[in-house]
Design goal:
By secondary structure, the protein is mainly β. It is 10% helix and 53% strand. It contains one helix and five strands; from the N terminus they run βαββββ. A five-stranded mixed β-sheet has the order 1-3-4-5-2.
C-alpha cells in the first residue's frame, strides 16, 4: 500500500540527509512492512508543501504498546527509494 504523509521540515531534512531512517507515527492507516511512504515536506508555519518529496519503503514495524511505544503508535524502519525536489533545497 502507498501512503502520502506530511513531514515537518526538520524531520524531513534528517531523512533526506540519511541521518534518520525511521518514522514514529500514529498507526491510523494500518502501516505494514512492504508499504511505500511518500513523505512530503510540509511547513506548519506557512501551511504549505515545499515541493520536496521522499519515497521510502517500510522494512520493519514496531507496534505499541511496548518498548516505550504508546498504544496506537508505531515505529517504521525506512529504506530510501527516491528523492524529488521541485523546489530549491534549503
Amino acid at each position: 500500500m502507498k501512503h502520502e504523509l506530511k513531514s515537518w521540515p526538520e524531520e524531513f531534512q534528517a531523512v533526506w540527509d540519511g541521518r534518520k531512517a525511521f518514522e514514529f507515527r500514529r498507526d491510523d492507516r494500518g502501516f505494514a512492512v512492504g508499504d511505500t511512504l511518500v513523505l512530503r515536506e510540509w511547513s506548519p508555519t506557512t501551511a504549505e508543501f515545499s515541493g520536496r518529496e521522499l519515497t521510502v519503503g517500510v522494512t520493519y514495524k514496531l507496534d505499541g504498546p511496548g518498548f516505550g511505544v504508546p498504544e496506537g503508535f508505531c515505529i517504521l524502519s525506512l529504506n530510501m527509494m527516491s528523492i524529488v525536489a521541485t523546489a530549491r533545497p534549503r
